[in-house]
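User: Fold this; tokens only.

Assistant: Input:
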Amino acid sequence: MTMSIAGVLPTAPQLLCAFQGRRFQDRVLLRSARALAELHSRRAEIGDPLMVAEIDCRRTELVEDINDWVEQELPQHRNGSSLHTESLGAVVDRMARSWVDANMAIDRDGPRSDNTHKHWYHLAELVDGYTDLVIDVAGGRRRLPEQ
């Protein structure tokens, strides 16, 4: 599936490609997703608390950018739709962190370790959750929180 179920939101595979730095064309949300993955990667490599705080501030800005974009691009169904607990920007940020953690686990522990499996399994759960969320938002069964 190359187009999102919602027609506007990227699919989970498109997000994963964006995290990797591939095939994100010139879409705002995918560029922000890539930037989040880069920030999580840098954050994991540094120990300076000031730099970590700076990275976290930038991540917050990118999450807000995603949320602003979603608010402009997606109609929200109010009647009968349940409220999701997280903004889409927060979901993408969590997926980006999980993607970085999973890749770091491979580098650190090898592809067959239990720790690596745990990280990739967690990422797979987030991918499933994101896909379900996109389907529910597109179908009007779920709405995203306002900022």
